[in-house]
Amino acid sequence: MPKLDDRLKAVAVQIRSSVHADIGSDHGHLIKALLTAGRIQRGIAIEVNQRPFENSRSTLTGLNADVRLADGLAGLNPGEADSLSICGMGGELIARILQSYPDRVPPDLVLQPNRCPEAVRRWALGSGYHLVDEQLVIGRLRYQILRFQRNHACPDPAYASVDRDAALLFGPLLIRRWEPQFRDVLLDEYRYLNDFDRRTNESQHRLDALANLLQSEPPHSNGLDG
Ligand SMILES: C[S@@+](CC[C@H](N)C(=O)[O-])C[C@H]1O[C@@H](n2cnc3c(N)ncnc32)[C@H](O)[C@@H]1O
């Protein structure tokens, strides 16, 4: 898939549908890569700002894609897309965009918050979307790529038998998989926050949650010993 960094590559492999909308398309590379790889038949790129809207339009010229200048889901009709991505924004903004037009949110979502993924997980829990996959990609930041599917039938099983607070902050599926790279990211953040003399309530809360997770980590050695 041309021109995608590891973060957007990890997003792209989660998407396979007929019509896909990307909100905040900026350069338009994600939709282009999805179309040229045959992962989608039609793309809808939505941008709120003029310059990135024009960049998307230029990237997607000649491809089966609409490029729209609009604020989030205001640019998408109900039922128009099978799937949607929102990448490279804060989690609160992603949640706000989704909350603004609940009836326009497609059944399949891939969301990549640059920060505050808990806002996205909280939105999904309250809106009948189940978390079906979480990936961690280490780049300029530590990116979480979250995939959701609409399911109003039952509570999200991703949160069964994990601490809800830690799961919202760090990811229930990532915690269950407990891969070395994920554990190292948690341990780095624990050490960083632990070195602070004065912590905000929020950073103290994260530190406590990290300490609990790392102390109760599954079978291998306790990360807090070293
Ligand atoms: C940091 S860029 C990320 C671009 C691309 N999605 C990526 O991950 O590489 C965020 C883009 O989202 C656009 N954006 C922010 N809020 C938006 C909204 N409410 N509706 C549509 N686009 C928005 C910005 O103009 C910007 O181009």
TrEMBL record:
Keyword Transferase: yes
Protein's name in the database: tRNA (Adenine(22)-N(1))-methyltransferase
Top-level EC class: transferase
Signal peptide limits: none
Assigned EC number: 2.1.1.217
GO BP term (any one): methylation
Organism: Stieleria maiorica
One annotated GO molecular function: tRNA (adenine(22)-N1)-methyltransferase activity
Pfam families tied to this protein: TrmK (PF04816)
Top-level lineage group: Bacteria
Key words, A-Z: Methyltransferase, Transferase
